[in-house]
Design brief:
The complex is a heterodimer. Chain A is mostly helical. Chain A is built from 13 helices and no strands. In chain A, helix 7 crosses helix 11 and helix 11 crosses helix 12. The longest helix of chain A is centred in the middle third of the chain and has 39 residues. Chain B is mainly α. Chain B contains 23 helices and three strands. In chain B, helix 3 packs antiparallel against helix 11 and helix 3 packs across helix 23. The relative contact order of chain B is 0.10. Classes of the chains: A mainly alpha, B mainly alpha.
Amino acid sequence: MLNYIVRRCLWMIPTLVGITAFIFVVIHLAPGDPATVMVGVASGGEMQGDIDYEARIEKFRAEHGLNKPLWVQYLDFLGPFNLKDSGHEWFGGTGEDNYSGVLALDFGNELQRKQVPVMEELGRRLKVTVPLALVSTLITYLLAIPLGIFSANRQGTLLDGVVTVKLFVLYSIPSFWAGLVLILIFGKTGLDWLPVVGLHSPDAAEMGRGEWIWDLLLHCVLPVATLSYGGLAYLSRQMRVGMIDVIRQDFIRTARAKGLSEKSVVFKHALRNSLIPVITLFASILPILIGGSIIVEYVFSIPGMGGYVYDGLLLRDYNVIMATTTFSAIMTLVGILLSDIAYALVDPRISYD
Amino acid sequence: MTEPRATDQAAGGDAGGYSKDYWDQVFEQLGKRTLFKVALAILAVLYASAIYAPLIANDRPFVLEAINYKEYGQAHRTLYPVTLGLNSLAKKSPEEYLEDRTEGSTQTFDEALSAELAAASGRVELMLSYLPEEAEGRAVLAEYMTKVEAGIAAARARDTETATATMKEVKDVAKRIRAELAPPDLDDPEAEGLELIGQKSYPLWESVSAWEIFFMVLWALVLLWPLWNRAWNALLLRGDRARIRRHRRLKWALVLGLSLLAAGGWKATIDGSLNFAAAPYKAALTSGEIVATRAVFPPVTFGFAETSSGEFFRPPTWSDKAEIDDEGYYVRGPRVPEPDVITGILPDPAPVEVRHGEPDRNAKWRRPLGTDSLGRDFLVRALWGGRISLSVGILSAAILLVIGTVVGAIAGYFGGWVDFLLSRFIELLLCFPVFFLILLVVSVVPPDFVPPIFLIVVVIGLIRWTGVARLARGEFLKLRESEFVIASEALGLSPARTIFRHILPNAMGPVLVSGAFSVAAGILTESGLSFLGFGVNEPIPSWGALVNESRNPEHWWVILFPGLLIFVTVSCYNLVGEALRDAVDPRLKD
């Protein structure tokens, strides 16, 4: 097993290189670059004329290594050596800053708001996004599995039909719309039960500890609901199908014939077997949550990774885009790995050696 | 799962016996599902409303018979100065002309004469077109033209004397025209004026392009399919099942052919590329510069990009908060203007402009779904937006189905290292966070480089095909061992023929099912991207972009209606996919 995990982790490296290289090429080949955006941002309303316009673009490009050939820029991104003008002496740099890139765990500074290191800001934002995603996944599973079992045990009844149709409907709702409608219903314009903007009230800094946590919880309700309803609908459908599949099998009939209680049949014999397909879905839920976080964080104005991606795309900030891409690719790959491992744990017939 | 299709032909031979083939069974299964039929009907209506949007909601009239007093007045007013110019030109000899001509002009004398002639005849023709058949003025204008032509002919022949004399007469006629053919005074309706007739034009039809006609005809034929199909089967084929089956393909070809024919004919005759600026035209109609004697508008008379400055973010007019008074102030609700705290003055009035053919200012049906930040009608934009949203779903699904099927077929059929490589590649693609990747590509390519909507379609198609490929691969792996494939190989048929003619039709079922789900997913993705602002170019609407108009919960109609449309469409596609899945392969059923 350990052998398998190590092998899989090693496989991740070429996959990651492939993904990042592809995205690197796409964003660099597309017309326009951060330098032009920077000039647009910096010049603002006042017209200075175009005297130092070209010079400023050149300076910006040189500073961030954008004037180098694409493959050098990509190697610079991978690291660990800094290949920019300020980089390692071995590669003709000045030696101010020898190491950077993914291998040095340094994605550089934000291109538009110079001072902030991307890694630092990303860490700050992941502290928002990852808990939200994990809580949503947890809630999804905690609700979906009982719902699937409930539905499967009453297969063919009116109640099962109602639940199935409801989940089906839920699955077809676009997530941004779900968020907005939740805001309409629970926000100021509707029932006015829950806060709808950000994660904290404006006066959160002066609150006591308990009050602060309560405030945070209230703010999280709607985003978590928006993040998890789609997965909930999908998962509980799969759970129901898996459960029905298992219940039809011979060993369940045997268990019933032995005179075991219904509870024991369902939870001891059927559940373990029907969990297999649902657990593999973990791999597909994680990337959906990452994509979903962009929309959810946009809708609820949450300063998380999704919002960071959105800002990075708008500002053409290569460093931000590459950092978020790398991170979400890693999350996806780890998700796939975890679900494969869980697969083996649940089903002893599967072995990876 | 099925018998190979080759049996179709064999079954055709028995006249009396009728064995159901695969698709007969599929249709029979589908016919039993009410939910499927309802979903299909809703989709049919949604597509119809998108395809026929230009005929339902448009600011151009179908037929317009109008007198453009402004145009006529201009022609009439400038005819006399043109005549004076002709007169002075005719008096000159070519040498004098060359001496006098304006600095930098390279016109020769003859060219100058032609230019003046064109100016005069253009104006006369325009005036003639507005004059009734029996009007006396026509004779005067005709006389004017003959004399002008005679004078110019004389000048061309360098007969200055005759030319001068003729032009003098022309000037007299022009004076008569000025006096007798003046347009009626618009500001004084009492005044007796010249009677003009309207000009007939078809602005809406002339702006419908050939491909729109293609889809309109196609959809009409598809919607009427149950009718003409029944008639065809009963009358032409006398209910012979085998022949009906063989005619399936013929019917589809006919539908497509007829639509193409209609589109080609349209392109050749009407062209449909008229660039008709509807907004100033409507304003002129409203102000009375143009008077319509007959104007047939579509049911909704707003254009999808037609703005209305007094009506920004107006709630749906059936709600009582939407009432606006003469000055443009809201009567009830949170938007009632309040006097300035210091000066006590109300904000400047911005009266709502009710243009020609539009419902009254406070009519319940004026803005049934409200308006956006520029006062554009939401109902109209939702109708037109369906064109983008619905076609993105279909097109992206088509691309991914083609790629997925081909890759899956190759991997499944050939197996071995081909399969290994393709499978690894698919696994690699599955590691991409899909929405993130699509968003990235769409956002970095500037909208004037490639229209974002094409980009969205292509990128979805290029990234999402992996699911279909896996399905197709599975089907091919299963089918490649069956007898009919071995038979076709034994016959020496090429792999391509075996794959596409023999295996594919039998593997099509599951692929089609995932196609229906892919359309739903495509629509969801496009709406998400448009919602984030990376979708269509302004002012083209799409449902996702409409939701993005405002995130202010007070503008609830902005959020509610377009989202509801997306939701209904996606649900319907999922329902259709579900029903298809059960019908195509009952073993996949829950």
